[in-house]
Amino acid sequence: MTSIPHDTPGEPDPLRALGLEQLRRRTSMKWRTYPEDVLPLWVAEMDVPLAGPVVRAVTDALTLGDTGYPAGTAYAEALAAFAAVRWKWDGLDVRRTAIVPDVMLGVVEMIKLVTGPGDPVIVNPPVYPPFFQFVTHMDRRVVEAPLGADLRIDLAALEEVFRQATTGSGRAAFLLCSPHNPTGTVHTAAELASVAARAERYGVRVVADEIHAPLVAPGVPFVPYLSVPGAGRGLSLMSASKGWNLAGLKAAVAVAGPEAAADLDRLPEEVGHGPSHIGVIAHTAALREGTGWLDALLAGLQANRTLLTGLLAEHLPAIRPQPAEATFLAWLDCRALGLGDDPAQVFLDRGRVALSSGLPFGTGGAGHVRLNLATSPEILTEGVRRMAAALMTHL
Ligand SMILES: Cc1ncc(COP(=O)(O)O)c(C=O)c1O
């Protein structure tokens, strides 16, 4: 039988702090979208208590009534310091940053800076569904350059899409997801440099969504897009939101490469009024003082990845998970199960476990589900048990 891993030394694993009863008291999307008999392993919220420094910083702010508008560059400074230590990147210049309400609204604003209505925005499906929704909503055209069979960027296909997208009108953006949601792929420095070279060749502007950057597995190097040669005209969105489970405390940072600074300067002032001041305080505390907590989380996630592989081998051997190196998501190819294009619906209806359907992730999503690993080993085990049970009743 697949066994549940034990605690690692250091800070306690935050994934094992909360039980189902406590989690069901939460009122956020993960816990309130489905009825109580459904186990939710879908939307990217983590089943963790907050890092101590975040709780203290927010509590202090609330006690003081420090609930006005955000000011200053503390968040960007904390991010720059984190990037220098964690990713060995000292190129994050606070003068080339802006705070934005959250990553997706930041993505929208960056795309607005470098494209016009009707222009193409290239994405690598299967990819985070809001990439399609937000881009379409802002009157840009989504153009797909699907990942290769190895779930990595297909550089030749990307180049061809760059060429086609820029023939004629000329302006185009590439919305890079790094690390990639849902596959957990961490792009290498060589891959990112190739992306930058191709983008330069065709004049495509790169907007990198790097929200999952703090969530690389222990020992895996994350390479910030703006750190690779040729990426100077790129723009990046970074945030503590995924790494420390702060989605409800809205804030993110937009970072411009040296040759994109003038573009970022055109960001309308009102965009900076959108982030929550409490959000900025929380994110800043996470980056400054929450690295011990993050390391404990990353160890727990790694243990959960191993646990999931074992559970699937035992109960659902037809699903062979691709090894993910980042995020807290597992992208599962369920095509061998014969459950059709939307296996998540079968798992929900018959197993009472909620996973994300692969369909909204675009090309390559059919027959797949995305499972959220950021929970306790017990809940993860129960989730896979329910998936297997769904199959029994499906036969
Ligand atoms: C790749 C990616 N970008 C953006 C977001 C959303 O970030 P925010 O809430 O800051 O808009 C998520 C959330 O899961 C994500 O996975």
Can you describe this structure?
This protein has helices at 20-23, 29-32, 52-64, 74-86, 103-114, 130-137, 155-166, 189-202, 261-265, 277-289, 291-315, 343-351, 377-394; strands spanning 39-40, 97-100, 120-123, 141-144, 173-177, 205-209, 235-238, 252-256, 329-333, 353-354, 356-357, 368-372. By secondary structure, the protein is α/β, with parallel strands linked by helices. It folds into two domains: 14-51 and 291-394, Aspartate Aminotransferase, domain 1 (Alpha-Beta Complex); 54-289, Type I PLP-dependent aspartate aminotransferase-like (Major domain) (Aspartate Aminotransferase, domain 2), CATH 3.40.640.10. The strands form three sheets. Strands 2-8-7-6-5-3-4 form a seven-stranded mixed sheet, sandwiched between helices. It has a three-stranded antiparallel sheet with strand order 9-12-11, with helices on one face. Helix 3 (52-64) runs antiparallel to helix 10, helix 4 packs parallel to helix 10 and helix 12 crosses helix 13 (377-394). The longest helix has 25 residues, at 291-315. It starts with 19 loop residues before the first helix and ends with a helix. The mean pLDDT is 96. It binds pyridoxal-5'-phosphate (PLP). Pyridoxal-5'-phosphate binds next to helix 5. Residues 105-386 form the Aminotransferase class I/classII large domain. Belongs to the class-II pyridoxal-phosphate-dependent aminotransferase family. MalY/PatB cystathionine beta-lyase subfamily. Its cofactor is pyridoxal 5'-phosphate. This is cysteine-S-conjugate beta-lyase. InterPro entries: Aminotransferase_I/II_large, Class-II_PLP-Dep_Aminotrans, PyrdxlP-dep_Trfase, PyrdxlP-dep_Trfase_major, PyrdxlP-dep_Trfase_small.
